[in-house]
Amino acid sequence: MPHVHHGASGSFGPVLATAMLIFSALVYLRGWFSLRSNSLGHVPPWRAGSFLIGLFLVWTAVASPPSALDHELLTVHMLKHLLMMTLAPPLIWLGEPASCVAFAIVPVTRRTRVFVLHQTRRTIALCWLASAAALVVWHIPPVFVLPMHSAAWHFIEQSSFLVTGLLFWWPVVQPWPSVLKPDLSMILYLFFATLPCDILSGFLVFCDRVIYPVYLPSSRLWGFSALEDQQCAAALMWTSVTVVYLIAGTVLTMRLLSPQHVHHAAAAREVRSGLGALQHGD
C-alpha cells in the first residue's frame, strides 16, 4: 500500500522554509556589511558566499521541488540527509554567521567571542554523540516511517538533521579561526565520526533484503527495484561522507603542519612552561 506523506504542512511548508531562509540571509548580510566598517575586522566576501551557498543547500533539501521526492526514493531521502548534515553545515560555519548575525543585533566583544568558543569546545563529545544519534535513530525502520505519515515528525526529523549537523561541524570549522587553532583531536574526531556512517552504509549496501518496505510501491515507478534504490542511497552516503570528511581532515592536517601553526604552538608551550616555573618557584 503506498504510503502517505504530508510534507511540512502541505504546500505551506516549503513557502515558510523559504521565507525563513531568506530572512536568515538578510540578517546575515546586514551584519556582514556592518561588520566590515567595525574595528573588530570584517568577514571576507568568500565567507559570505559560503554562508549563502550553505543556505541554498538547505533550501534545496527542504523546499525545492525535487525535495518532495524523498517519500518516493530512498536515494533522494539520503541526498537530503547529506545536504542537511554533511554539506550545508560546514559551508554555513565558514561564513562565520555567529559573528555577523550577532553584530547585526548587538555588538560583540572579543572577550565574549572567546568565552563562547571555549564553552563550545567543552561540548565536543555532545557534538559527536548528537550527530551519530541522529544518523542511527532516524534510520531505524520503525522510526524511519514516522515522518512519512506525519508533518510534525517530518519537521522534527529535518530540524534534527540540520541542528546536529551544525553541532558536529562547529568544532571542526571553528567559525573564528583567529581565536582557536586546529589540533590532532579534530582529526580523530572526524575519523570516529565516519564509523556510524560506515556501519549503516555497509549494512544497507550489502544487505540482500529491503530494509524499508515503505519504498516498495514507489520505487518501481522509477524503473528500478527498492533494493537497488537502497543500495544506491547507501553507496551515495558512504562515498560522500568519506570524501567530505577526508577533505576536511586534509585541510586540518595542512593547517597543523603549517609553519605559522608550529610557531604559535611553540610559543604557547614556552608560555605554559614559564608559568609553571613561576608557580613552582612560589
Word description of this protein:
The chain has 282 residues and is mainly alpha-helical. It has one domain. Helix content is 75%, strand content 0%. The chain has helices spanning 12-36, 45-62, 74-94, 97-105, 110-121, 124-137, 141-144, 146-149, 151-173, 184-206, 216-219, 226-257, 259-281. The longest helix is centred in the C-terminal third of the chain and has 32 residues, at 226-257. The radius of gyration is 22 Å and the shape is globular. It starts with 11 loop residues before the first helix and ends with a helix. Mean pLDDT is 80; it is low at 1-10, 108-119 and 262-272.
Helices and strands, with pairings:
Elements lengths: L11 H25 L8 H18 L11 H21 L2 H9 L4 H12 L2 H14 L3 H4 L1 H4 L1 H23 L10 H23 L9 H4 L6 H32 L1 H23 L1
Provide a compact summary of the structure.
This protein has 13 helices and no strands. It has 282 residues and is an all-alpha fold.
Largest sheet: none
Distance between the termini: 78 Å
Mean pLDDT: 80
Number of strands: 0
Assembly status: single chain
| Gross geometry | globular
Helix fraction, binned, reads: over 70%
Question: Can you give keywords for this protein?
Answer:
13 helices; 282 residues; 0% strand; mainly alpha; single chain; 75% helix
